[in-house]
Each structure stands twice: as structure tokens, then as C-alpha cells.
Amino acid sequence: MKVEKEFVLREIAGDNILVPVGETALDFNGLITLNEVGAFLWNKLQNDITIDGLVQEVLNEYEVDEDTARKDILEFVGYLQKADIICQDGETPKKIG
Fold first, then answer.
1. What is the pTM of this model?
2. Are 6 and 23 in contact (CB under 8 A)?
3. Which of 11, 23, 73, 79 measures 20 to 30 Å from 38, CA to CA?
């Protein structure tokens, strides 16, 4: 998986916000707020990484069991995929809108 590069993570007033940039800023109506773990995952998604890789990174960083980590990661990744913010290997990232 990899991130659609038209979003950047910014800390604004203590909140982690995904901000659309470039053409995406014209098409994407809004901002996305991430919690600490969401921001951690977003940073890991800057490099091509698998679900298993994300799970291992979370297990190394946080005190959580593997099943919970995997379930939460799949939910987070599913949300980003549905919004066309990330894509699987071999896919062309889609534009929002």
C-alpha cells in the first residue's frame, strides 16, 4: 500500500490533520483528523508497506494485542481506501471527486 501523495499530515492546534494539497485541494471538500495511532500509521504509509508490516510496527510501538491491532488497522486502511487516499500495490491512485 502507498499513500496518494496529494495529502500531507500537519499538526494544527495539537490535532493531527490530513490536509489535501494540489489538485486534491480543489476536489476534496474537508480535512481529516487523525488520532495519535492514525498519524503513526499515516507516517508508516509514506513508504510502501503491507498490512502485516503495519501490524508489526504497531506492536513494536504500542501495548496492544495483535488481533486488536490488525482489526483497527484494517478499519483505518479501509477508510483511507474508500476515500481513495491510499492504494494497493500496482493500482494507480485515484483522484477524489
1. 0.82
2. yes
3. 23
